[in-house]
Structure formats: C-alpha cells, structure tokens
Amino acid sequence: MDRLEKVYTALRKPVDAIIIKNEGKISPNHIYITGSYSRAYQNSILVVRRESMDLVISRLEEGNKYPEHINVHVADRKEDVQKLLRELIPEGSTVGYESTNISYRSFNALRRLLVKRRFIDVSNDLLKARFKKDKEEIGRIEMACRIADRAMEKAIDMLEEGIKEKEISIEIEHAMLRYGADEKAFDSIVAFGENSAIPHYAPGERRLKNGDMVIIDIGANYRGYVSDLTRSFVFGKANEKQKRMHEVIAVAQELAAESVKEGEEFAKVHRKVQKFVEESGFGKHFLHSTGHTIGIEVHDGFSIGGKSKEKFVSGNVFTLEPGIYVNGFGGVRLEDVFVLERGELRQLTKAPKVVEL
Q1: For the chain, counts of helices (H) and of strands (E)
Q2: What are phi and psi of 311, to 5 degrees?
Q3: Which side of the chain, N or C, has fewer Cβ within a 10 Å radius?
Q4: What is the Cα–Cα distance from 42 to 56, expressed in whole angstroms?
C-alpha cells in the first residue's frame, strides 16, 4: 500500500482533498505524503487527492527539482494562487486540514477563500498513517542514527576539564552536518553536574569539572527523518550514588527493550519500567515517559507512557529513554532508537555506553 493510500485508509471521515500549507516550516505530513524533503517547499501549498498531488509554488522556487509524481503549478500573484486553489478544490468538497501545522490566521484565510467547502481536521489521522514506517523511512532514520552515533563519539572525545557545555553543543551540531546530516533534529542538550538533573536543559557557560555527571542528548535530520540519542557519563571517578543511578537506568532500558513485542501495549511497557525504578528507590525522580515514536518528527505522535493507548506493531520506530533526575545532584538518561521488524526488535543507535570517562 503506498503512502497516499495509507493516508486515505487512515481517515475516520471521508474527504475529497487534503490541503497542506507549508509556511516558514515544511509540514511533516508534506514530507510523509510526497516522500520528498527540501527547503524549496517552504511557503508552498500541497493539495492531496486519492489519485493525485498538486503543488502550488511561487516563481522564486520554480528552478528547484520536484518529484515527477507531483503536479507543480507556478503562481506569483495572490489572485492566481486563489484561483488555482478554487479550481483544485471545487465547491461542495470536503477538505481535510492539519490543525497542528497551520496558523490560526492561515486557516481562517483558507476558509474565507474556499467558501462552500466543509473543513475537517485530519491531524490525528495523518499521525496514525505515519505510525508504521516503510522500508524507505526506516532506512533514512537508520542513516540519521549513524550520524548521531559518530557525533556522540566526537563529543566524548572533546570532554576535558574546563570545557563549556556550549562548546560541546556547537561542535556536535557542526559535526553532524559534516557527517551527512541535512540539519540538526533539535537543539542539542549538553549538561554538566547539577544541570544534568534538568531533562530539557539548554547548554550554557558551565565548565566541566572532575566528578561531574554529564548528559548529552543529540539528533540528526537526514532527508526529513531524524534520530534521538542520549548518553550519560561521570567525568572522572563515579561515587556510589552515581554508579547506582547508572545501573538502575541501564537495567530499566534493558527491561523496556525486553518487554517490547508485537501487540504489547505502550502503557504496559512504561508501567513495568516505572515499577522497577520505584522499587530501586528512585521513583520520585522518574519524571517522563519511557520513550516515544520517532520519524519525521522527534516526537512523532505517540508517547510510550502510562496513559498511552497504542500497541506495538511491526514497522514502529521509537526511542526507549528512561531517566532519573535528582535535583541539585545530577541526572542519568540513556536513549536509543529501535525498530520493530517482523516481530523482532533491532537497535539503530550504537554509540558506546560507559559510566566513567
């Protein structure tokens, strides 16, 4: 089943067309449906029907190369764009739109333009279509993982007493581009000492000291698909509490991986991990879900948490990232990307895991 068919099969209510408006950022659903990733799609409009795709671009983007399966229309004037959209989506049509990737202003402008059409939010349906990855998608994610692995090794080599968090994060992001990434997947997290207890920390001026706990969380974007990799270390000799935190999280991640199987509930895997961490004495420091699906977006729609309703199926690509964070002391998180293929779990990120550096 190709992606267009997958999308229309996932729709809970039938639509005649889906409209995707790419503004300053390319919609993840545009990348998924077209299979194409390029900055040339910024400020374009994609109209998707079951049998065809039409792309409206400005003359500024005319020289770019577009896939043969997309019908490209060039329109410079606002009036020409409006005329094209009215022709592509005739009166009486039911139109699917994605509320998660269009501004309120743009949506209202579309409704004023396309009167006598019915609009239905299909955001969740599109996420469902993306839930199970095809071979090409898995290949791109795997390449993004390889790039992140290399960048993590580079970051580890750079760790020395006195270096700043910012210095490491800047070099990581440059390294990923050198290794083949199109861009970073997200702002890298590099946290030293007490800062490692902040899960979503922004690297600052903190300098590395002997005995510091270190968290490095990075991801690469390769042709529209991303990776997400976290490693934790102690710079120097670890004390008993630091060692215990690392041991608990390493076992927690192994437990999560062993629990994943076709048909298993996301929530059940999370609850197993949560119970283990609680019994290990760190329950109040376990602050987030066990993982999340990944693909075009870092958090590609679904969390592996206690309230998740999804079940694992072959074709799922996801992270397992248990973490514990002791305020004022430090944190430990290990995160890897996995794919479930024909009922078998395969790990895509391979960066080394060590406690002491």
Answers
A1: 9, 19
A2: -120, 150
A3: N
A4: 11
Chain segment 252-270, per-residue pLDDT in tens: 999 999 999 999 999 999 9
One-letter amino acid for residue 106 of the chain: S
CATH of domain 3-130: 3.40.350.10
Rounded to whole angstroms, how far apart are CA atoms 306 and 283?
14
Is-contact 314 340, C-beta < 8 A?
Answer: yes
What burial letters (b/e) apply to 247-283, b meaning 16+ CB within 10 Å?
A: ebbbebbebbeebbeeeeebbebbebbbebbeebebe
Specify whether the CB–CB gap between 123 and 100 falls below 8 A.
yes
Tokens at residue 138, please?
A: 């898995």
Domains 3-130 and 135-347 fall in the same CATH topology:
no
CATH fold, domain 135-347, is Creatine Amidinohydrolase (3.90.230)
CA distance 150 to 68: 34
Binned at pLDDT 50, 70 and 90, residue 336 comes out as very high
**3-state secondary structure at position 108:** helix
Encoded tokens for 305: 């948490």
Tokens of 356: 């002491």
Pull the structure tokens for residue 122: 């299909």
Q: What is the pLDDT of residues 53-90, one digit of tens each?
A: 999 999 988 888 899 999 999 998 999 999 999 999 99
Provide DSSP, 309-321: --B--TT-EEEE-
What residue ranges do the domains of the chain occupy? 3-130, 135-347
Q: Band of the pLDDT at 165, cuts 50, 70, 90? A: very high
Residue 306, phi then psi, degrees to nearest 5: -65, -20
pLDDT of residue 7: 96
Residue 1: which pLDDT band, with cuts at 50, 70 and 90? Answer: low
Q: What is the pTM of this model?
A: 0.95
- Sequential DSSP letters for 242-304: HHHHHHHHHHHHHHHHHH--TT-BHHHHHHHHHHHHHHTT-GGG--S-SEEE-SSSSS-S-EE
